[in-house]
Structure formats: structure tokens, C-alpha cells
Design a protein that fits this description.
4-stranded antiparallel beta sheet, alpha/beta, 455 residues
Length: 455
Amino acid sequence: MTAPAPSPAPSRALLALAEAKVPRYTSYPTAAQFGPLDEATYRGWLRDGIRPDDPLSLYLHVPYCRDLCWYCACHAKPTRSEARIDAFAAALEGEADLLAAALPEHGGVSHLHLGGGTPSILGPVRMRALVNGLLARFGQRPGAELAIELDPRILDEGMVDTLGELGFTRASLGVQDISPAVQARIGRPQPSELIAVAVDRLRRAGIAGVNLDLMYGLPGQTVAHVEASARFAAWLEVDRVAVFGYAHVAWMKPNQKAIDAATLPGPEARLEQAEAAERVLSAAGYVALGLDHFARPRDSLARAAAEGRLRRNFQGYTTDDAPVRLGLGPSAIGQLPGGLAGNILDERAHADAVAEGHLPVARGVATTAEDLSRGALIERLMCDFALDLGNTAPSMQPAIASALAAMAPLRDQGLVELTPGRVVVTPQGRRFVRQVAACFDAYLAPSAQRHSAAV
């Protein structure tokens, strides 16, 4: 496969777009629209939004790490207390009991994803009890995907063997950058040899799909650093690589204050780094998918993209097409036909609510028919870089006309092509697809600081 040629130097207008704050569009409406949500409303969504044959997608959030990396923007806390982890695991099992009892008849679990934080902090015994208990409560569909996010630094053979025995099919390893100098600037020392050992152990345990997560835009990071990390991922022949742009949101995440903002690459350097990762991975045979994912041509994600079946949710790009996604654990978010529901953030308050017999939901947003239509358009743009508007409902025509008008400046900069009934994001515009998608966002405030830079 021919690697993309380096892009010409970006204009000031493009650099301004790259710096603009827009959502990542892993849902619509986005979490910025969340407000208070009561348990009765959530129970109604569960009762009325699930059909007997609907598959379920479960997301389990484990909010703990041994140490908190400086770049992290996830809902996570450092702990070394086994008692604290015991209490959390018990609360999760209690929440699973309450949720299983609240559900109507359904079709069982098609996707189970454990994220964090560091899910492997549970240890083999807790992990085995938790996963077996979940699948016993909710049922497992044939061919279900079981996926987990892992920190190679605390991944021992006992945990790997447990994941293999439980039938996990995919594991994502957080790498970010293999340079010791960059690692020192983000508080995450992690020798490359350790990552290679982790990949080998996972494969030997029968976990067929292995992913690596990389980042660009980190403090002190250069194009050469990004290229080296991408080559390392290709050398390991992992199935998927995600290359995320670092979001510096120190006003929201105090741990990021350890990073000197003056050492962060500027918008032009970030663009160059993102393009460098794509060049290396494309030259190594990976298929570029959506905004920031790459996969081997035979990987299920690449096949889904080729067939127009690629999806996007809170875990990023995925093959998960379940109509119902349920979140368990502090801060976890679920998605149902009735709306989006987020759990209580604080783990102690989460545990207290469960102990009192309450589903620990606290925030969310009901979705309207227009929200669902806008969300579908945004998702297809984010996944396919194109929209066919020919079959859009008449009620959506005013919204579409407004969105197309908002895209005119993007068209003038060569980022999108607008023809009757069709929108196509150009190769140059793919890096700015979030900006294109934002034209369909009825809620986006022009200066929403809580969102990350577009590139």
C-alpha cells in the first residue's frame, strides 16, 4: 500500500480549525448536554427501550490505577488499597444484580468491554468472579466479543492466563510513546521490551486481537518520536492501532498540571505528527479508519469499514452494533433509545447508592427523534467521511440546509465537497472531520472550552 504523501504546510485558517474546540462525537447529544437524571426515568428507558431479541453491549468502568499518569483525562484515581478494590468489586456485583433485575427480556451480551483506569488492577480472582458473574446474569451470545484495556506495566502471567480462560477476544495496551524522554514528561516509564512481552503473552493465551494505543501532541514529542512509536506497533504486527491526539485539559484534570504546557507541540506540529503516524502505518499495510484508527486489512474493524458497517461509541471506533449499551461502575455511560445515562462519578457515592438498592444513575439526557437523526448523520460522517442525504426524512430538511450552509467555509478551504444530496469529506479534510460533523450539532456552543482541540 502506498503511504500518503506529506501534506503542504497548512494555512492560518486550517491551523485555526485545528485549534478549535469541538466534541469527539462518540455520542450525540454529547456528554456536554448531560443534566440531572433520576432513577425512575432511567428505569423507564430500560423497561421500554429493549426488545426480547436485542443484544446488549456492557461497559464496565474500573476507576483505579496503581499510579495516575500525568496525561490522563480519564475518570481514574490512584490506589494501592486492596480493601478499596474489594469494596469496589462488591459494589459492581451489586449494581449488576440491580441492573439485571430491572431489564426486560433481551438477547444476551454481544459485547463486553472493561475500561478504566486499569481493569487488571482487580487481579485474577476478582476478575474471574466478576466476568463469570456478569455473563451468568445477562447471558452470552455466540461469538460475543470480550475486550479489555490493559497497562503492560502491571500485566503478569496470572492475569493473562485468567483473561484467556475467561474467553477474552481482544486486548488494548496503552503505550502512548516508546521514547523514554517523552515517557518521563508524562509520568509513564514503560520499556519497549515490556510491551513486546505483554503482546506475546496475550497471543499465547489465545487472545486473538491485540491493539496498541498511541498518542501525538505530548510534551516534548516530535515527528521522529511519533514515527518510531508507529514503526514499533507495526513491528509487533498488532491488529489495530489507535493514534489519539493528547487533550490538555488541566482545568478539568489536576494531574495534567504536572505537564508544562510550554512544552506541548503547537497546532502545526500536531498536524505533522498525526500525518506522520498515518504515513508509517499505511506504508506498513494498515488501513486508515475514521479519524484516528488503523487496522490490518483482515481485521473485523477494517472489514466493517469497507462494508459501511463501522460504528462509533464511547469506546471509539467499533464493530459493536448492539442497539443498547449499558454502563456499570462510577462514571460509566449507557445508551438506550430513550437517552444517554451516566452513573454517579464518586465511587463511594456509587457504592452507597447500590447498597441502598438504587441503580446508581445520576446524569444524562433524553434523546428526541431529531437527536437520533442528527446523531446518525454525525456517526456516518465520522465513520465513512461521506453522507448520502437522498433518503433523509422531510422533517430533517431544515436542519440539513442549515448544516450545509455552515459547511460552506469548509468547502471553500477544500475540506469537503458538497453536491446535491451528498457530502464528501476530502482527503485533506479527513483530519478535520470533527469540524464537519459539528455542522450537524444543534447544541454546540462556539467557545465550548470543555472540548479538546479538533486535531
